[in-house]
Amino acid sequence: MTLLIPPGPFSDMLIAVTNLANVQADNLRQQTLHQLRRILTTRQAARCFLSIGEYYRRLRALSNLWSSRPRENFIGTESVSPTGTELQPMHNQPQQNQYSGF
């Protein structure tokens, strides 16, 4: 996470809070891993770790696809959509009030 905040007390506090949140998340993950031995059987824990590994593999693949996408379609355009025409027909339709029967 990258934030553009000028140096000073506010940025120091933001960094400290971010670090605290990361430490708390790490502690929770560690406690969960230690509790898995009591909660799950060996087979269930193995399947859990395989599923987590597969999830992170897919997440990395998606991240690589996202970071390698062509950016010229998104820079300097007025619209979020690549063509800019998908939302135009909606503006020509008359709007109906959902409470018009009352």
TrEMBL record:
It comes from the Eukaryota. Residues 76-102 are annotated as: Disordered. This is DOG1 domain-containing protein.
